[in-house]
Structures are given as C-alpha cells and as structure tokens.
Amino acid sequence: MARGKMIYEGKAKILYEGPEPDTLVQYFKDDATAFNAEKKDVIDGKGALNNRLSEYFMNGLMQIGIPTHFIKRLNMREQLIRKVEIVPLEVIVRNTAAGSICKRLGIEEGTQLPRPIVEFSYKDDALGDPLVPEEYIIAFGWASQRDLDDIIALALRVNDFMSGVMLGVGIKLVDFKIEIGRVWDGDFQRLIIADEISPDSCRLWDIETGEHLDKDVFRRDLGNLADAYTEVARRLGVLPSNAPQPSKPTLVN
Fold first, then answer.
1. How far is CA 45 from CA 30, 39, 52, 78, 96, in A?
2. Scanning 14, 88, 235, 239, which has its CA 20 to 30 A from the CA of 48?
3. What DSSP string runs through the chain?
4. How far is it, in rounded angstroms, from Cα 214 to Cα 90?
C-alpha cells in the first residue's frame, strides 16, 4: 500500500499521508529516547515489536467497544490509522507509585496506590510536558469539562482492560500514558484512543521478580531493551512461546 509524503516525525514514530482521505500511515522507528530525548539510542527490532504490540492492544480495546484510531497493520513497521485531531494532553493512569510521582510526593517506588489515579500533562517537549490540573485544561480551551469526563472514563476503561490482560501473563501494569484524538461525524464529536499503546508508553513489571519489562530498562541501563519488549510480546502470544530469543525479533504474521 502506497504512502504519501511525510507530515510529521516524532521521537519514536513517523506519520505519512495515507492512501485514502482522512487516513495516515504510522511508521514505528527503532529510536529509543529518555529524559526528554537527552538520552538516545537505536535499538534493533524495537519499532517492529511496538508496531505489533500496539496492534494487539488496539484490537483488544476495539473488541470491548473502546474506539481507537487503528485500522490495520500494513507490514512489520507500519499501520494504517485514522486521521484525528490530537487533544494536546498526555493522559497518565497510575496504579502503583513509580517515576515522577515518587519524586513529587516522596512515595516509595512500588507502593500500591489506593485507587487508579488519572493525571494530565501538557504536550510540549520544550517545556518538558508539564503536569497540569483540570482547571488549566478548561481555562486554556484544550478540552471542555465534558471532554475531560469522557477522557477519564476512557482512560479507566483502558486501565481495566490492560491490567487484566497483563495480569493474565504475570505482568503488573504499573502505569501508562495514552493520547486522545477527536474525530468528527458532521457536527458530532467523538473521542478515541490515538498514538500507540506499547512498552514505550507503559511501565510493566514481572509480578514475581519485579523485573522491568518497559522503557525503564533503557532509562536506567537495566539490560537489553529489545529483550524486555520481546518477553512482553512472547507472553502475550505476539511471538511464539517456543521461539529462540532473537537479537532482531522475528514476529508472527
């Protein structure tokens, strides 16, 4: 399937014009970044793994009635997606204390939170994606109160689904972030899950050992990032369970 001209390049993905109106081709890169791109590397096979894992999660969400931008996977590194208007927020759901919340509040990493906590950060790399309260979001017109109510409901449904899926393969979903897109049917607006859902955007710990299976492996120099993502894919059935551990992952078509 032919793709059009490049319209955007981010830290982990490239977007191209799609073959049909209101579609895009999303290409997953092997680039790994951390600390707002201050740390960078290229991890062979990472893009292919994230493409397949994001496909897996997006399809699972759609099967339980949660709308997403995903249309279909095109090849090992590309998927066809619906063009959306991105809400300029990162939506973060936390189940267990880790990362920035520990620094902000002095909570010990690994502390189970009393309930899932939904946070918002303003999407701006130059500012470091600062955390913002709902009052800011409404005041600056990034989303309405009704939008926020719908976004929180969507995020918690994603959390329920993802937590259950991960628990079934012995992985704790510590936290994750998603992006939300607006689509329009005439004058009617819908909010849908956009961007990606992959180990790049989640914290995933082995339930028994506490081993990190997410981008913290790269952030903290804990081992080989491709090996960690491959383990997640293997447990979920995206890779065959009896396949040898590859240096460049061989994925199931």
1. 6, 18, 11, 13, 29
2. 88
3. -----EEEE-SSEEEEE-SSTTEEEEEE-SEEEETTTTEEEE-TTHHHHHHHHHHHHHHHHHHTT--BSEEEE-SSSEEEEE--EE-SEEEEEEEE--THHHHHH-PPTTPEEEEEEEEEEE--GGGT--B--HHHHHHTTSS-HHHHHHHHHHHHHHHHHHHHHHHTTTEEEEEEEEEEEEEEETTEEEEEEES--STTSEEEEETTT--B-STHHHHTT-S-HHHHHHHHHHHHTSS-TTS---SSPPPP-
4. 18
Q: Which residue has the tokens 């903290």?
A: 220
Do the Cβ atoms of 224 and 217 come closer than 8 Å?
Answer: yes
How high is the pLDDT of residue 143?
A: 97
Count of other CB atoms within 10 angstroms of residue 126: 6
Query: What domains lie within the chain, and their CATH numbers?
Result: 6-84+225-236 (3.30.200.20), 85-206 (3.30.470.20)
| CB 138 within 8 Å of CB 145 | yes
This prediction's pTM: 0.91
**Which residues, listed in sequence order, are joined to residue 172 by a DSSP beta bridge?**
205
* Contact indicator for 148, 138 with CB cutoff of 8 Å: yes
Average pLDDT of the residues of the chain: 93
